Amino acid sequence: AKKPPRALAFDPVAGRLLVAREEGTVRLHDLQGGAAVAATTLHEGSLRHAVLSPDGAWVAAAGKTSGVSLWYPASGAVTTLQAQPGVVRDLDFRPGHPGQFASAGASGRLLLHDTASTAVLGDFSFGFAPTAHGAWSPDGRRFAVVGRTGELSVVSIADGGTVLPTLGHDL
Predict the structure, then answer these.
(1) CA distance 110 to 84
(2) CA atoms of 143 and 78, how far apart (whole Å)
(3) In sequence order, what are the residues at sequence separation of 6 or more whose Cβ sits closer than 8 angstroms to the Cβ of residue 150?
(4) What backbone torsions phi and psi does residue 65 show, to the nearest 5 degrees?
């Protein structure tokens, strides 16, 4: 029996749905007919996360290892980006900054990636590890991250990576 997908995301621009499975199959399906219009394999056998850029142009994915893959469905190109030191716990595209996304790692670091150059634009530490989940503020200026034991911290990317006071364990 197939396991349920690890990730789903709507493409608001092209009317597609991203479906990513643990075995590494990543597909974009047309919402009108349901057919897969683009497909690839990323992190074969270990895919944990996959996110679609707001414009639907890019898919960022991470597996059980430290690597982050970037897929450009229009051409089929796949690029491996600088790895986190340890497992990637979360991925998220940055609101208001096309082509930028964050990877939060088990090591307690946040890497800010650029899809066009594949460069790391910033490397920030939030003072605890391992992480569990992260989220951007709506304006893309801050990234909140929660640790696996409940610590919560906010990194102000707009201010050069200032770590705002930790909010503690009372979530």
Answers:
(1) 8
(2) 26
(3) 168, 169, 170, 171
(4) -100, -170
pLDDT tens for each residue of 117-161 = 999 998 888 777 777 788 999 999 999 888 887 888 888 888 877
Give pTM, 2 decimals. 0.88
DSSP assignment of the chain, as one string? Answer: -PPPPSEEEEETTTTEEEEE-TTSEEEEEETTT--EEEEEE-STTTEEEEEE-TTSS-EEEEESSS-EEEEETTTTEEEEEPPPSS-EEEEEEPTTSTTEEEEEETTSEEEEEETTT--EEEEEE-S-S-EEEEEE-TTSSEEEEEETTS-EEEEEGGGTSEEEPP--S--
pLDDT tier, 168 (very low <50, low <70, confident <90, very high otherwise) = low
User: Is the Cβ–Cβ distance between 28 and 17 less than 8 Å?
Assistant: yes
Model confidence over 77-116: pLDDT tens digits? 999 887 777 788 889 999 999 899 999 888 888 899 999 9
